[in-house]
């Protein structure tokens, strides 16, 4: 493996460094001048103090067993080993369809792989939790406050997954495996709420409140189902054999009749009609209106951070810990975190003990190529890889592995204690990560997206990611973001789709000048145009050009391609 080294990022007196990289640059010596100059590393250089991106590209494509459809050799991807990587480079790579598993960074061959994987991102600033999301959050609050355990799962939450692990190897796809949420139940919930509303309202109130009801239904439908934001009016249809007679008053429940009698009694006692929050029609409103349920839905933060009573049954906290064995908190919790990982892999994914050892855990979830950065204009926690630990009564019950990048929080993986499956920790952690992204955005405005890994439309257990709306999918050809509701019709017809509807559009970030690609060869950094004249290796040119095309011109000029 190549040691970490700094790389020149432009012309000047020495290797240029980006924000957060101005560390040790002693030991560099320049040979030649102009764009073909070569930088060499002297013996005085401090390797560990420098932070460029150094990658080693593997020519060709990996063929491996698909963890989703179980095709023995149907999954295909390109990959490279990242000896080190800046957070900006990784941000640019995931915006071109790449993803990491430990230090291995891979990109599916979208038009050839059996289960195309589309990068998906949620827009947290516009996110509103759906009805099923709210159920999960309320379930957690009830458990923490009173120790209540729900009997069975929510109607729109199937049992915890017991399918085989989708991870075929370290080079396979790693995504947070979460509870599926049935899209159909959202529309069912909407229909049920409409029916109950119609039953509760009198003939006159129907007319007065119909516009408001339709508007709230329209908003709910847009947020929960992700349909386009045009107005959708929903009308209830009389049930067969029970046609509505509009000449008669609507049926009313006994509870509603009792409420009405109480209201009339109170009005007779107080002609002003303002006792107990009731008001006579035609009277001016009170200066101190009674408390009523607000039409404004609770925010995600209201639902997550609702205060608990002092006598709460459980103590719960979430800790953000940098992925570094130099961090005392990460080091002290490593053993407990590892034990939880083993328990999760064996129970949920039926992994044998020899496949979820400490070496695999470390390489898979604790080894990251990302260099930690703490710029002044960045989030207080800095950029890099983290474990978000969920502590209940002094022990870890779940760990969300995330990367905090310049423009997003990227979800890597989740493992949790199967004994707490009734809390729907997969959904809960995703909602916490969305809320966390919003929190980081307050300090760092450009950080405004939540990346959920890959969306696989052909795999039912991975379609749940489309529930977190609004969200976008990455076009695999032009690398532009397209709202998911515009992509779904195409995906129903074909596994592989180009989402950009402009036939003239091209990949604006494609490799245009491969000779400007930076190569790290024999402790020297040089443009590829210089390297290929010195090395004279025609056989390796195809691999370099393939690499340049996949990472794009910007990353090709900024990252160092290690050549042996």
UniProtKB/TrEMBL annotation:
Annotated InterPro entries: Acyl_CoA_acyltransferase, Arg-tRNA-P_Trfase_1_euk, N-end_Aminoacyl_Trfase, N-end_Aminoacyl_Trfase_C, N-end_Aminoacyl_Trfase_N
Q: What class of enzyme is it?
A: transferase
What functional role does this protein have? Involved in the post-translational conjugation of arginine to the N-terminal aspartate or glutamate of a protein. This arginylation is required for degradation of the protein via the ubiquitin pathway.
This enzyme's EC code(s)? 2.3.2.8
Q: Where in this chain does the record put each N-end aminoacyl transferase N-terminal domain?
A: 65-135
* Record's catalysed reaction(s): an N-terminal L-alpha-aminoacyl-[protein] + L-arginyl-tRNA(Arg) = an N-terminal L-arginyl-L-aminoacyl-[protein] + tRNA(Arg) + H(+)
Which keywords fit this entry according to its UniProt record? Acyltransferase, Transferase, Ubl conjugation pathway
User: Mind telling me what this protein is named?
Assistant: Arginyl-tRNA--protein transferase 1
Q: Name one GO cellular component term.
A: cytoplasm
Q: Where is this region: Disordered?
A: 193-254, 273-295
Q: Name one matching Pfam family.
A: ATE_C
Task: Look up and give the organism this protein is from.
Answer: Balaenoptera acutorostrata
Q: Where is the composition biased (Basic and acidic residues)?
A: 193-210
Q: Which family does it belong to?
A: Belongs to the R-transferase family.
Describe the location of the N-end rule aminoacyl transferase C-terminal domain by residue ranges: 337-475
What SUPFAM superfamilies does its record include? Acyl-CoA N-acyltransferases (Nat)
Q: GO molecular function terms here?
A: arginyl-tRNA--protein transferase activity
